[in-house]
Structures are given as structure tokens and as C-alpha cells.
Automatic annotation (TrEMBL):
It holds the Pfam family BPD_transp_1_N. One of its GO terms (cellular component) is plasma membrane. It comes from the Bacteria. PANTHER family: DIPEPTIDE TRANSPORT SYSTEM PERMEASE PROTEIN DPPB-RELATED (PTHR43163:SF6). This is ABC transporter permease. It comes from Mycolicibacterium rhodesiae (Mycobacterium rhodesiae). Keywords: Cell membrane, Membrane, Transmembrane, Transmembrane helix, Transport. Its main location: membrane. The chain crosses the membrane at residues 101-120, 132-154, 196-218, 257-279, 299-318.
Length: 331
């Protein structure tokens, strides 16, 4: 695992530079004047020129890109024209809400996906029904899953909330901006439980399609591994089927699943914006929707860069887990 880490970190550098270059290029090609959005369309030519010089937009493009790259590396993502505050400050407030949702959704994805894969691969009673559910679940779009979840668990059963982050008006807002952590630091387990209560339905809807994909890949991988020579040898020496499955087959089957989880994260991040809007959660979805509506390109670029960094870091972690599960990856 330690041999993989330096290579993955080194490989992430050009990816992040290309990401910054893509965002910078889109900013220049976009039909939005950031100066007019900042000082107003009716500003005098002197004010417009002064703002353009202050932002360095009167310099050559290579110099502008270098300044943009160095500023992004130090966390300076510019100022939002909507909130009139630095984009980094806005992200510190909105991003933890989204990361909490992604974290809980990833737990649902792993648990449900592994259960589906193990049950269907072993052919347990009811596995045929689960296979039909897996095929059906893979075709359900996330917005439909959200609407069905709200209809069943809120309208009919009235057991889960569907809006907001918490029902408490005195919920702590710091120091980490992660409500699950801040509520524990403040000694408020009631807020912690209420936050989890509000996370269950949106996280489940977000995790449904990725969990089905994980279950299908794990089932296929397990079926191939269970027919391998080493598993037949394990059975021949008298090991129980459950021990063969967990000890000798599962670890050798998780490689494709881990690779899929890295890809599914990108899908979950994209769907997370829609889920947050449907469930009225104050996360990146709300922030980016306002930015797009007001053509706030600094905020859009900031969210794009942060999501890109999150995706790269997550895939590095996935690679490390793959090397841990299968040492051949390190070679």
C-alpha cells in the first residue's frame, strides 16, 4: 500500500492541473462578464477598468492562468457575486452538509450492495426475487426514487422527514460545520440523532442505484471466484461454505467492486445536487443552483474544482484499498 501512495499522488498532480486549466478555459469562453457582475452593468469605465486591473484580467492569458492556478492552490477561489463573500468561505459552510450526505449514502451503498451480492451469489432463498429487484432498481432515476420515498415514508407512513437538515433551531454551526460532529462536540446527542433521522431518506435514495450496481458486480465477481482452484481446494479440506465465502472468496472479489465505487462516486456527487434540491438540504446543491441562476462563475468554478479534488482524493483512497485487498495491484 505504501508503494502505491507516492505514485498515485504524483499522478494526481497533472490531473488537477488539467482540471484547473479546463475551468479557466470555460471561464474565458463563457458569455459572462465577471467584471460587470462584480461592479454592476452601469459602472463607469474608470471603475470597470480599475476592477479589471485589480483582478489581473488585463494581463496576458498565460499570466492569468498562472495566477489562477497559484490562487486555487492556496484556496483563493475568488469572490461570489451573489453572496459577496469569498467562495472558499461559502464552501466551508455548504460543503460539510453535502459530505455528510455522501458519507451516509456511501455506507448505505456498501452495506446494501454487499448484502445483495452475497445473497444472490450464494443462491439463498429469495435470491431470485432480489435479482429482479436489482435489475429494476438499476433503472430507477434518482429523482423518481426521491419522489417515491417521500410519498411512501412521509405521506403514507409519516415516519421520516423530507426537508431540511434538522428540526432544531439552536443547532450548533461550528467549529467543523459538520453537524454530526459539532452536535457531539456540543454535547447534544439529540441533535446528532435528529440529523441522522433527516439523512436516512435522502441518503437511501442517493445510494439506491449505486448499491444495485455494486451488488451486481460483486455477485459476478463472487461467482467467478467461487469456481476458482483455491476455493475448490478450500472445500476439499473440509472448510464450511461460509468460511470459504468470507475468507477465501470475498477478499479476492472486492477489487472490481472497489473500482466501481470510485466511478459511482462521480455519479453520486452529480445526483447529490438534485437530491439536496428535492429535500431542501442547505448543501452544495443549493449553493450551485443559486450560482447558476445568477451566472456566478466564481462559485461555479469553485464548486467544480472542489468536487474534482474530492473525486481525485477518493480514487486515491480506492487505489490504496485495492492494493490492501490485492497486493498484486502494488506490483
Amino acid at each position: 500500500m505504501l508503494a502505491v501512495l507516492p505514485r498515485r499522488l504524483l499522478g494526481a498532480v497533472p490531473v488537477l492541473i488539467l482540471l484547473v486549466l479546463a475551468v479557466f478555459s470555460l471561464q474565458k469562453l463563457a458569455p459572462v462578464d465577471p467584471i460587470a457582475a462584480l461592479v454592476g452593468a452601469k459602472a463607469s469605465p474608470e471603475v470597470y477598468a480599475a476592477a479589471r486591473h485589480k483582478l489581473g484580467l488585463d494581463q496576458p492569458l498565460p499570466v492569468q492562468f498562472w495566477n489562477y492556478l497559484t490562487n486555487a492552490a492556496t484556496g483563493d477561489l475568488g469572490q461570489s457575486t451573489v453572496t459577496r463573500t469569498p467562495v472558499l468561505s461559502d464552501l466551508i459552510s455548504f460543503l460539510p452538509v453535502t459530505l455528510e450526505l455522501l458519507f451516509v449514502a456511501m455506507i448505505f451503498t456498501v452495506v446494501i450492495g454487499f448484502l445483495l451480492g452475497l445473497v444472490t451469489a450464494q443462491g439463498w432463498r429469495g435470491s431470485g426475487v432480489l435479482r429482479v429487484v436489482m435489475v429494476s432498481g438499476a433503472s430507477v432515476p434518482v429523482f423518481l426514487a426521491c419522489l417515491l420515498g417521500m410519498l411512501v415514508f412521509y405521506r403514507w407512513l409519516n415516519i421520516l422527514p423530507v426537508t431540511g437538515q434538522t428540526a432544531f433551531v439552536d443547532a450548533p454551526t461550528g467549529p467543523t460545520h459538520f453537524l454530526l460532529i459539532d452536535s457531539l462536540l456540543a454535547g447534544r446527542p439529540d441533535i446528532f440523532a435528529d440529523d441522522l433521522y433527516h439523512l436516512v431518506l435522502p441518503a437511501f435514495c442517493l445510494a439506491l442505484t449505486p448499491a444495485v450496481a455494486v451488488g451486481r458486480v460483486l455477485r459476478s465477481s463472487l461467482e467467478a471466484t467461487m469456481r476458482a482452484d483455491h476455493t475448490r481446494t478450500a472445500r476439499s479440506i473440509g472448510l464450511s461454505e461460509s468460511r470459504v465465502l468470507v475468507v477465501h472468496s470475498l477478499r479476492n472479489s472486492v477489487g472490481p467492486v472497489l473500482a466501481l465505487l470510485g466511478l459511482q462516486l462521480a455519479v453520486m456527487v452529480g445526483n447529490c445536487i438534485l437530491v439536496e434540491l428535492i429535500f431542501a438540504r442547505p448543501g452544495i446543491g443549493l449553493y450551485i443552483s443559486r450560482a447558476i441562476d445568477k451566472a456566478d462563475f466564481n462559485a461555479i468554478a469553485g464548486v467544480t474544482l472542489v468536487v474534482g479534488v474530492l473525486y481525485v482524493v477518493t480514487n486515491i483512497v480506492i487505489d490504496l484499498l485495492q492494493s490492501l485487498a490485492d497486493p498484486r495491484v502494488a506490483l
